[in-house]
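Hey, quick one: can you model this chain's 3D structure?
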Amino acid sequence: MQSDGQDVTPQDGFAEAYRGAVGAWECDAFDHLNIAFYGERFADAAFDRIERIAPGTRWRTSALDIRYRRELRAGEVMTIASAVLGSEPGGVLIAHRATNATGECTTLAEQRLLGTGGEAMPVTAAAEWDRFEPLDLPSGDSPLITCRNRVRARDMEEGTLALEACVRRFSDACLAFLDAVGMTEPYRRDADRGFATVETRLLLTEATIRPDRGVVVTSGAVGIGASSLRLLHHMRDASDGKMLARFYQAGVNFDLAARRAAPWPPEFRAKAESLRIR
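Sure thing. Here's the predicted structure for all 278 residues.
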């Protein structure tokens, strides 16, 4: 990579925007990088891109869609190449490709950024990219409360809830939902099972929240297959019910020894169906 910032590959518009490694403390109970820390890394990569095309511009993430193609585990090197796809109303759309040390693509992401200072964010490169197709999600909500806690100052970034802090709460909510359908920690330990997320879609509203305010997450199923489970989470301000974020999460029942999908027990599928969002 050149030091003058002119490192965009002419063929596709992508350039290295992040390089780091997976820490053991960032891995969850299923021995792979927790989904919360992907958002943090893609935010770092987006910062690199924006600093190159519009230095000093202030922005925030309004949406982040991710496909997890291969798990990343403790000690693995992670590199992200990013490119600007085009203009969005008030901001830009950025694509990310994450690879491991062998160059294998592990993760794909689209991130929508909105400027917060009123400055225009010019587009200097348009990459070739297969766009994420929109999802048809139900408009209903779930009565199942899966996370409730307090926002702290360390959770904040650019005046609102940071991506890592936001997704971390949805990750906790996923575990609470699994508990509710019968996939408790003792079951997971005895059966050597876990959950592997394969796709997430985060949508952040324009609402903001201050430190020392409470948040509540509710969750429900939007689909369940032989080994798959699709969830929809909503995060709200605990005081006034104001919607802060919506998070779609698709994944599979995961055999921790074989590191591949495994069938759901019938009773788990039945319970998940009873918690479906209509």
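One thing worth noting: The first strand starts at residue 15 and ends at 21.
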